[in-house]
Amino acid sequence: MAISSKYYLRRIMSRFIIKGKRELYGTVKISPAKNAVLPIITASLLAKTPCLLEEVPDLADVRTISSAIEILGARVEREGGGLKISVPQMVSNEAPYEFVRKMRASFLIMGPLLARTGRARISTPGGCAIGSRPIDLHLKGFCLLGAQIKQGQGFIEACADKLVGSRIYLDYPSVGATENIIMAASLAKGMSIIENAAEEPEVVDLANFLNAMGARIKGAGTKVIRVEGVQELYGASYSVIPDRIEAGTFLVAAAMAGGNVLVDNVICEHINPILAKLRESGVRVEEGEGYVRVYGGGEIKPTDIKTMPYPGFPTDMQPQFMAMMTLAAGTSVITETVFENRFMHVNELKRMGARIKVSGRTTIIQGSERLSGAKVKATDLRAGAALVLAGLAAEGITEVGNVSHIDRGYENLVEKLRGLGAEITRKDD
Length: 429
Ligand code: EPZ
Known about the structure:
Shape: elongated
Strand order of the largest sheet: 22-23-1-24
Structural class: alpha/beta
Bound molecules: ligand EPZ
Number of domains: 2
CATH class of the largest domain: Alpha Beta
Radius of gyration: 21 Å
Number of helices: 15
CATH topology of the largest domain: UDP-n-acetylglucosamine1-carboxyvinyl-transferase, Chain
């Protein structure tokens, strides 16, 4: 599956045109989780026999990670709505800069590549709009598993004849570090214990996929994960969990635009913190078996949030929630504890009439009656999503530029919103 440069060129120049104040009605089906499918795709490098992922969202990030592992020797084929990934043998153990630059999650190749071949050479992932995004905890884990790490000329190289199980304490419950270390430890000799591990549902989904491949992982979803290394892993068929952040995004969309939307294909437990904060904001949400119904249009109460690792309020919902608080009947305080620079959407929201003050990692949002449409730009994935939500609720026309950021994490966003009655179109310059 080669990435066509035309594809990227076209997408980078795309923009959304939104005519606001259209209530949303109907049902929207949530896609499989981007942040679960990316590590699961890299984990397929650990098996010599094919893996079949039943439902895989058609996202730019999925194309990027698929092309990256094809460079290493994987064959990635679309099968219906899913992917068949075969890696009978590796032909390279180096992930080139072009992929890591495009998507930091390419660094999730490191763990499986090191475990499968004993050597991995990956371009050092840069920072991104929302923060410096260090990888020190990933490297700490690989070192403790017995790898030698060399850094230089923009590359990180890890080598190990045989990884050996170890006790690894994560100074911060990093999602990516937990995932990379689990993948490396799966083929290590002996037991590994990861302490202060990330508890996100996407970590659990990765562990479930690896166990289906023959791994022996216990405790995923808690702070202590035990991985008993095995000799070999085999291809498996797997169905990825629904995207809790996409679900939260649509719940907030209906809360802001008004209407009555059934958000289908949801694991309610995964969005408990989002549901709790929606209810605190006065939004009526009803949980069902695998779905949530949201009744929008009522008064939005000012509500404070503080982003935390799971099961706290997710940082990936902070921009969207901030958009909603710009319409609250009072003042809200939002504190971002996970990333150091995740307020890029503030200035764009202010162009739409929002009254927001930033002070360090805290923002104070003085809610107002209305937002007005304006030309704005997406600076990163979730900031872009927040601007779309603001456009749905604003008076007049909103144009969101740089929607290539949004294409990374939302499958068919325009089609799904139009299906609910939104007036939104994509324009390719
Ligand atoms: C994952 O990123 C997600 N991405 C992010 O989603 C999400 O925001 C983040 O987890 C937190 O939930 C994917 O799963 C592909 P972290 P990741 O390592 O793994 C510090 C989206 O919008 N840290 O948990 O990179 C780091 O500085 C994206 O879908 C270290 O200090 O997140 C940050 O402050 C955005 N050293 C904090 O941990 C390390 O070695 C959280 O990072 C690694 C991380």
